[in-house]
């Protein structure tokens, strides 16, 4: 398993080293880095103002589109397997899992690798001694695959969802939908020129956090727990063991600005890339996974995107029903509401964790009671899905080998399975992540 910081200036990756300060931005979440000269005195650090070593923050020295990042990723893979052959396992299959914006990254990266493989195979590659990369499985968790298709659910989901929570009223919903669908409206502009989209509306609801159903700012639930990585990755011993000379950047404002400048987030073609992977000679498996409490990339939009993938078995996929996702029973999570409780349990030490539609190598799964980071909310279900995908078995049960004849059966319409909203969890303040804390803290 290989974890890659991508693009440059994110995580521990860097181009040029600079000393500087990172101050909490106006959104209360992003840290903005400013170069500084500390030759005479080092500024004081506090919770919202850090001193450290960072990347250059130059927009010209980080990719600004998914296509550029895919190209860089391929060259990295070629260098890795050439210069470090001892890291190349006997099983050379490569699987890629991506989340959120990974709905762009995952399909684009794997499709680019597929295209390079084709050139290597037919002798048209201009890259000397390029390695053929055996692509096996692409997994996408809560991914933004197609802005045109999924954006409509940003409007409809807070008005109508399987938790019975109406975050916007009918008049607001109708106004937003009108602005989206009218001639010359948002949808037309996205389709015509890739311009930026306006907020889907939930952000205007007082106190609402437009990511997770039943959460309000400050964040509550499992995300602050995952955020303890902030502190761990800042420890001197960890930095020394990893051999890195820079502070860890969870998100790079420079990289985000570079991508925003090209309107990369509204670029299409990723559904077509998935179709090419499914229909190609390599037999790549593609699995889409969405938490049904996620708003940022909600399952309704994910389902619509899955049905819009133009592969050769699209009609058969749309006609298939949903099978129960049965996963090993685990203790209920402590963030309010365990998955499976609204739908009952399967036998044999399993529980009902979601719904899966699968035809051959392609699946779409809705995971109950999971937010934008499915593994944080439903670790058992997420691990089961990952393990089944890696072993080439059906996602719903893990008992059936994946073949062309695999077609799920069960619930025809996933919307008929409703959920009881969990109790709203109390915020858990993690002092190194100030946005998780109440204002008085």
Automatic annotation (TrEMBL):
PROSITE patterns cross-referenced by the UniProt entry: CARBOXYPEPT_SER_HIS, CARBOXYPEPT_SER_SER
Disordered: annotated span: 326-347
EC main group: hydrolase
Membrane topology qualifier: Lipid-anchor; GPI-anchor
Compartments where found: Cell membrane
Single Gene Ontology MF annotation: serine-type carboxypeptidase activity
EC number(s) from the headed UniProt entry: 3.4.16.-
Gly residues bias (residue ranges): 335-347
Sorted UniProt keywords: Carboxypeptidase, Cell membrane, Glycoprotein, GPI-anchor, Hydrolase, Lipoprotein, Membrane, Protease, Signal, Virulence
Chemical reaction(s) catalysed: Preferential release of a C-terminal arginine or lysine residue
InterPro entries tied to this protein: AB_hydrolase_fold, Peptidase_S10, Ser_caboxypep_his_AS, Ser_caboxypep_ser_AS
Any one Gene Ontology BP term: proteolysis
Pfam family name, one: Peptidase_S10
GO cellular component: fungal-type vacuole; plasma membrane; side of membrane
Function: Extracellular serine carboxypeptidase that contributes to pathogenicity.
Family recorded in the similarity comment: Belongs to the peptidase S10 family.
PANTHER family (alphabetical): CARBOXYPEPTIDASE, SERINE PROTEASE FAMILY S10 SERINE CARBOXYPEPTIDASE
Protein name in UniProt: Carboxypeptidase
Organism: Rosellinia necatrix (White root-rot fungus)
Taxonomic placement: Eukaryota, Fungi, Dikarya, Ascomycota, Pezizomycotina
């Amino acid at each position: 398993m290989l974890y890659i910081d991508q693009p440059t200036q994110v995580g521990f990756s860097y181009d040029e080293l600079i000393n500087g300060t990172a101050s909490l931005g106006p959104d209360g979440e992003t840290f903005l880095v400013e170069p500084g000269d500390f030759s005479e005195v080092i500024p004081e650090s506090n919770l919202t103002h850090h001193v450290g070593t960072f990347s250059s923050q130059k927009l010209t020295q980080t990719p600004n589109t998914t296509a550029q990042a895919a190209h860089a990723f391929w060259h990295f893979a070629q260098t890795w397997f050439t210069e470090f052959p001892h890291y190349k396992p006997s099983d050379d299959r490569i699987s890629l899992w991506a989340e959120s914006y990974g709905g762009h990254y995952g399909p684009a990266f794997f499709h680019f690798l597929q295209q390079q493989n084709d050139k290597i195979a037919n002798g048209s590659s201009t890259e000397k001694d390029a390695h053929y990369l055996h692509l096996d499985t692409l997994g996408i968790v809560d991914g933004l695959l197609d802005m045109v298709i999924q954006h409509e659910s940003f409007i409809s989901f807070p008005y109508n969802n399987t938790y019975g929570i109406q975050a916007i009223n009918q008049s607001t919903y109708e106004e937003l939908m009108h602005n989206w669908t009218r001639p010359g409206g948002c949808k037309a502009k996205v389709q015509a020129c890739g311009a930026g989209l306006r907020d889907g509306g939930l952000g205007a609801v007082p106190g609402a956090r437009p990511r997770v159903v039943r959460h309000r700012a400050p964040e509550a639930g499992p995300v602050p727990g995952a955020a303890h990585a902030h502190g761990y990755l800042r420890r001197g011993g960890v930095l020394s063991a990893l051999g890195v000379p820079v502070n860890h950047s969870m998100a790079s404002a420079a990289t985000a600005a570079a991508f925003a400048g090209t309107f990369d987030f509204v670029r299409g073609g990723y559904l077509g890339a998935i179709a090419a992977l499914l229909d190609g000679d390599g037999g790549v498996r593609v699995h889409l996974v969405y938490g049904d409490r996620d708003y940022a990339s909600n399952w309704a939009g994910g389902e619509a995107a899955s049905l819009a993938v133009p592969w050769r078995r699209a009609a058969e996929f749309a006609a298939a029903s949903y099978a129960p996702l049965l996963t090993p029973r685990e203790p209920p999570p402590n963030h309010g509401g365990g998955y499976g409780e609204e739908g009952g349990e399967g036998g044999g030490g399993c529980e009902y964790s979601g719904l899966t539609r699968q035809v051959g190598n392609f699946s779409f799964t809705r995971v109950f009671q999971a937010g934008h980071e499915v593994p944080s909310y439903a670790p058992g279900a997420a691990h089961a899905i990952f393990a089944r995908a890696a072993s080439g078995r059906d996602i719903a049960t893990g008992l059936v080998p994946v073949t062309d004849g695999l077609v799920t059966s069960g619930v025809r319409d996933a919307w008929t399975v409703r959920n009881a909203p969990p109790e709203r969890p109390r915020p858990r303040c993690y002092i190194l992540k100030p946005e998780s804390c109440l204002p008085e803290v």
